[in-house]
């Protein structure tokens, strides 16, 4: 018998174990952050006394994102995945969420389509090897306040991501970058991952020129590190910049949505991550 229970802090080690198998690079703190933002919004599937799967949610106003949809390999192809999805969707529907999105691995797209999700675009994954000779003229300090960064993000995306961003900006104050002259024009956060890489995201910019300046500053700061970033396929300017800076493509996922489609990607040059949008 499959039972879906609310994720507790005692489940975090299991959730990270599943993401380690998938090589997603999650840290336990990624799950602590989600439980802090919504203690009731993440779930674990149990069969008898054994954990067999997970799903997480994060809500941004009336828009939400599903992530970490993982079922232990020996239980795949059965009812565990659909039960987890139905439970999470039911929870978000009760909250009044209008649009739900996710980044789906291609092997699971048929299931997501069956339960009502539609394709939006490919969510690209790019990586960059260390380049010790890379340099940039622009400085790396960010003089903007947390409130200014959150306000800028909302203006550029129209999404209420303040709770998530406040947590990330407090966790990574020394890894926050921005372009600010007379006004804030771009910002990004760089986060450590379990795979010994650094992930850039979010990266939000008014346009490609300031994105290029900001990305150059980041790459010059971390020239000895492996870097990753997720980019919406429909932001062609972002892709061009990343490839010009030496990023290479790795297998993508499919951004999918349920409910009214919302388009916020014009100024999104890097997503936060595949599990929270």
CATH class of the largest domain: Alpha Beta
Element-by-element helix/strand order: EHHEEEHEHEHHEEEHEHEE
Q: How many domain modules? A: 2
Shape: globular
Could you name the CATH homologous superfamily of the largest domain? Gcn5-related N-acetyltransferase (GNAT)
Which secondary-structure class do the elements indicate?
alpha+beta
Approximate helicity band: 25-40%
Give start-end ranges of low-pLDDT stretches.
none
Q: N- to C-terminal separation?
A: 32 Å
Strand content: 25-35%
Residue-averaged pLDDT = 95
Number of strands: 12
The gyration radius over C-alpha positions equals 18 Å
Q: Which topology of the largest domain does CATH recognise?
A: Aminopeptidase
Largest sheet: 12 strands, mixed
CATH architecture call of the largest domain: 3-Layer(aba) Sandwich
Number of helices: 8
Protein name: N-acetyltransferase domain-containing protein
GO molecular function: acyltransferase activity, transferring groups other than amino-acyl groups
Domain N-acetyltransferase: 2-132
Organism: candidate division WOR_3 bacterium SM1_77
Give structural notes.
With 277 residues, the protein is an alpha+beta fold. It has helices at 12-22, 28-37, 80-94, 109-114, 146-157, 162-171, 208-221, 236-244; strands at residues 2-6, 43-47, 50-60, 63-71, 99-104, 118-128, 176-180, 184-192, 198-205, 227-232, 248-258, 268-270. Helix 5 (146-157) packs across helix 6 (162-171). The radius of gyration is 18 Å and the shape is globular. Helices cover 31% and strands 32% of the residues. Strands 1, 2, 3, 4, 5, 6, 7, 8, 9, 10, 11 and 12 form a twelve-stranded mixed sheet that branches.
């Amino acid at each position: 018998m499959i039972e879906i229970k609310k994720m507790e802090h005692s489940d975090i080690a299991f959730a990270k174990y599943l993401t380690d198998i998938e090589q997603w690079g999650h840290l336990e703190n990624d799950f602590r952050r989600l439980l802090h933002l919504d203690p009731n919004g993440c779930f674990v599937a149990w069969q008898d006394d054994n954990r067999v799967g997970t799903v997480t949610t994060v809500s941004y106003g009336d828009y939400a994102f599903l992530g970490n949809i993982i079922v232990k390999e020996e239980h795949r192809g059965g009812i565990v995945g659909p039960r987890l999805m139905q439970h999470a969707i039911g929870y978000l529907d009760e909250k009044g969420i209008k649009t739900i999105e996710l980044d789906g691995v291609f092997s699971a797209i048929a299931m997501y389509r069956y339960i009502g999700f539609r394709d939006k675009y490919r969510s690209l994954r790019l990586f960059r090897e260390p380049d010790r000779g890379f340099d940039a003229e622009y400085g790396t300090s960010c003089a903007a306040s947390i409130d200014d960064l959150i306000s800028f993000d909302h203006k550029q995306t129209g999404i209420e991501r303040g709770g998530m961003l406040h947590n990330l900006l407090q966790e990574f104050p020394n890894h926050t970058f921005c372009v600010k002259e007379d006004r804030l024009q771009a910002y990004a956060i760089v986060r450590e991952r379990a795979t010994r890489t650094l992930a850039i995201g979010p990266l939000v910019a008014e346009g490609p020129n300031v994105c290029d300046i900001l990305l150059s500053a980041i790459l010059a700061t971390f020239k000895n590190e492996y870097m990753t970033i997720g980019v919406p396929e429909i932001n062609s300017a972002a892709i061009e910049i990343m490839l010009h800076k030496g990023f290479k493509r790795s297998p993508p996922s499919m951004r999918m949505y349920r409910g009214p489609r919302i388009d916020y990607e014009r100024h999104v040059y890097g997503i936060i991550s595949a599990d929270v949008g």
